[in-house]
Structures
1.
Amino acid sequence: MTGAIQETVCVTGAGGFIASWLVKFLLERGYRVIGTVRDPDEEKNAHLKRLEGANERLTLLKADLLDYESIVRAVKGVDGVFHTACPVTDNLDIVQGPAVQGTLNVLKACSESNVKRLVLTSSLGAIYMNPARPLDDVVIEKCWSDTDYLQQTKNGYCLAKTLAEHAAWDYAKKSGLDMVVINPAVVLGPLLQSTLNASTSHILKYLTGSAKTYANFCQAYVDVRDVAQAHILAYETPSASGRYVCADRVLHRGELVDLLAKLYPEYPIPRKCSDERNPRAQPFKISNEKIQNLGLKFLPFEQCLKDSVSSLQERGFINTL
Ligand SMILES: NC(=O)c1ccc[n+]([C@@H]2O[C@H](COP(=O)([O-])OP(=O)(O)OC[C@H]3O[C@@H](n4cnc5c(N)ncnc54)[C@H](OP(=O)(O)O)[C@@H]3O)[C@@H](O)[C@H]2O)c1
């Protein structure tokens, strides 16, 4: 994707892991970008100001998802909006606040500002968490996570993403707002920001030795650069619509640690499963055909892992042995 696009777009939560790559690619494509951050002067957003094109075409605005007027100011006059901001935590407090109300604030502000298209960052967690789905069923865009199950299991993050996406679709349908949704799996890959984000800490614990075992669990993974490109494809392709599963591959945690141990035998990577009583969890099936048809080509997963680890080494989160 190259070119010089003469549009202004807003990215909420611009300093985040995914949003930083999105801002970088948007600037490279020629967009003017309004990035919302909670504290524009904070050191954790400094990397944004160093991106190519940032001096000329990036403006950072202070905004909080729960402060409606700050969101109105950020989206006023822009052509498109990428709503990525959301705390990534299992704390149930985020559900009604930044997740649901924050998303509705962004949609309302977009609708009132006649934004051409909103691309919402949801999650695969809003799609696949359903114990009633037979293991042979393929996880696709029409699937929804079971909110009762998420409540019962106190899975605050997936509950927040599921309820926020439901609320967003209800609002978009009522208001006529053009919304496209990206549903990424667990996102890994190189960091642009200096701070550690939640999904990267997922592999850091295996490299530092703080995790002595791995869980009997399967998850889908995707590279952060692919997630950012998926957002741009969803924005720029007029025919893009609905939801897009953005996942490269499903791995059992045992497979993930095996791969890490093969690539980095020098680190104390756990080789023991925490659950020795139950049979090994079987991977679920997933289709990423829809996003591939939009033009996304996934980066090789081994490259994604290597780039994640290099970035953790460069930032001093792990020593180079
Ligand atoms: N990483 C993954 O594995 C993954 C997978 C699927 C979906 N997603 C979704 O992708 C999006 C970005 O995730 P990420 O991994 O890039 O997370 P991240 O690095 O933690 O970024 C989250 C961003 O949200 C902002 N934010 C949080 N609460 C806010 C509020 N009340 N008002 C304004 N901004 C707020 C944060 O701003 P501050 O810097 O001010 O805290 C931060 O910039 C989220 O919607 C997440 O649910 C992530």
Note: The pocket of NAP is lined by residues 13, 15-19, 37-38, 64-66, 84-88, 98, 102, 121, 123, 161, 184, 186-187, 197-199 (CB under 6 Å).
2.
Amino acid sequence: MAKMDYPGLLSTLSQAASSPSIQTGLTRTEQQNLYQACAKLSACVETPQDRLLKGSFDFILPTILRLAIDIGIFTLFNEDDSVQEFDVSEIATRTKTDQVLIYRIMRFLITFDMFDVTPEGRCKANTFTKSFRSGTGAYDTVILLSGLTLPVFSRLPAYFQKTGNTLPENAKMGLFQDAHDTDLPVYDWLNHRKAERDAFHQVMAASESLNDSVWAHYLPQNWFLDKFASGSSDVTLVDVGGNSGKVLNAFLHRLPTPQARLILQDIPDVIQGEYKDVPLCRTHENASQIEKMGHSFFDPQPVHGASLYVLSRVIHNWPDKEALIILQHIQAAMNDQSTLLICDCVFSDQLGKVPYTDATSDMIMMAVFSSLERSEGHFRSLLESVGLELQKVWRDPLNGTLLTVLEVVRKKQLA
Ligand SMILES: C[S@@+](CC[C@H](N)C(=O)[O-])C[C@H]1O[C@@H](n2cnc3c(N)ncnc32)[C@H](O)[C@@H]1O
């Protein structure tokens, strides 16, 4: 193999990095492609030590951003659409905050290009500042990380010491409850924390992973057409724990079916969309075709014999005990023509075959929900124990294991 031209590569990269116009004129996709190529290159050359040191202080940014949000710094800079600039002392006065604290926060955030500085030393809003508001993925992720997730992870070593390294498996008594001093499961706790609750639902509604991918890349259109041709049910699809109706919406985009009866279920608070400013249950342009039903999946499923039941990103939030109850209720409502589609992260049973993002998601499930991302084998045995059968595993080769679709039917009764 030819030896790499090390000096040439270094010079090309240095030149590109020092070009002031490297992002000028690029579309968002081009910018993202370039960013991903740089990330890949970094990953090729960094050592585990480099990676550790690079990521070790990452938690500080969301916490300082949350502080800046709570103090009202972003509100001040976004009071109107004009470009805003302020001296540190003005920010301090207008937010009624210690000037030295403001100075230190601004100095930190400026290093991340989240504000600009004028030649006179005034802090000036830039495109990041102007775009950083509720309803955008970045803002809501900061609220969730700082208010919900980071306190749990900071408690993790102490929790395991206290419990003698016992795996959290109880939805009402795990690391999350220990860190937040509560005995409520996460979704009940969220109901008492407006900022985090709204952020959670915004993040769910905004997450792109389900937009069209499930329907377009996993299951072929013909699969649905065959399924509906063979069924006799008047209900086409029940989206259980469906949140804002994203999955149903993507389904309708992919398969405009004017006759279909589509049901969106979630807990009543979510379904009634009482969360102000959160685009819950708006279900976009197809709203009129989607029936909304307040229903807890821990109660018997009221819709019987639907062609399809969907559980998208639901089961991974629950330990086996609760997962089995959810599955049992759906099994009891299915008939021999019904199919259950479970969209979740489904790991390979082989160690070393799981990408970083999925392994991270598993850690979040353990810490926050006392649950886990399951392997195919684990799913298979859960399903079997409640009279269900895994018929096919649909994977998107471009999407790792993060979202896999499990096609599940009722186990045939022996005559
Ligand atoms: C991680 S979100 C997934 C939402 C959606 N299926 C998706 O893929 O975007 C989990 C959903 O389960 C809902 N949920 C939590 N507890 C529930 C319950 N007891 N009954 C019904 N839905 C519930 C939450 O409100 C939330 O919308």
Note: Residues 187, 204, 210, 241-243, 246-247, 266-267, 270, 296-298, 312-314, 317 surround S-adenosylmethionine (CB under 6 Å).
3.
Amino acid sequence: MPIHGLSSQHQTSNTHPTHFDIEKVIRPNILSLLPYRCARDDYQSGILLDANENALGHVLKPDRGSANDYLHSFSSLDLNRYPDPTQLEIKSRIANLRNLKSEHVFLGVGSDEVIDLLIRICCVPAKEKLLITPPTYGMYAVCAHVNDVGIVKVPLVNRGGKQFQVDIEAIQQTIKSDPFIKLILLCSPGNPTGTLIPLSDIRKLLEDTNFKGILVVDEAYIDFADPYSNYDSDSAVSAVCLIKEYSNICVMQTLSKSFGLAAIRLGIALAQPPLIQILSNTKAPYNISTPSSLLALEALSPPSIMSMRQKVKTLITGRGELITEFERLAKLGLGLGQPLGGNDANFVLIPVTERGGEKPCCERSIKVYEELAERRGVVVRYRGDQVGCDGCLRITVGTSEENKILIKQLEDVLRMI
Ligand SMILES: Cc1ncc(COP(=O)(O)O)c(C=O)c1O
């Protein structure tokens, strides 16, 4: 069955690996879906009386009442018109940034929408499943539950002296014995582990003939990864370089982290054109709002990309300084362990231990977490209930000033509790 909207060139293109057939992975109702079409798909200019918009314009009047600068800029936009459903310019800039073509790019309302869409297009509720590797990002399980899709867990393991490695053999055993697993969701660098997944591990899963589904690699934090920290022989850290080769990979990225634009909700899926076309056919027609798309376009301009790189550099320096400070506190015997994981994201995962001891202590960690938030004005994330994260706090790298306050308050609290 041809995929609606996919050019004939891509319908027939050769795919690798040969054991992957997208038509067997995508739910039949999605494959046969006739996407929503509007007159604006064909005609974008003229007297626009096709979409039941408000012909008199929007109601925002920044000159009246609470006039803010941002309202002035927004009110000059055609906010009474539905946004562009295709967002080709943003896709082209993302493709440029990541060395792909626009046809490899899909845009969602944050990666969270992409996760939900991938589950919806692949997994039949109450029958098919996704595989996750705890400890990992919580939304995978939430989206699976919302969609009544089963979750299979293969925890990360310590291997070769490195923490939080993907247990490739266990995943391969699991997919062999359970043909209902349609999606594998990996996170690299992981949340909350900060650990990069070697591309050689990802390749093993993509090549595994027992796995007929799609491997999703969530790279929300990839720009914070040190390009030389990968212990593969090739120096690439991002799985994006596998997209042209493999039709069964989908890489997710986002403007929420390195670009500092969590508020505009712009998530990205990168994959071969058939999967991108199916995602586009399934999404709500106008998912990216006009204000968000304008801000995203600006964020993807050369000066803003330079600014992103500068911010990433500053945050990586801050991450190093935080780690040094945590090590100092640990040496003072205040009950803090060594940071866990790879430290390749914009946070550090650190165990709170028994006072004067080395054993992680969840009870004390919760007390530290609550004291910091309730009386010291510093909010971090308690992750001590996650597999392999006993007693851990996940602490986002802040500004230099915020980091200093955090360290001061944490030291005080550790001396007290
Ligand atoms: C691993 C991971 N993926 C995705 C997201 C969500 O990204 P977005 O803001 O694009 O929805 C987060 C947010 O914390 C995350 O940690």
Note: Residues 302-331 form the longest helix (30 residues).
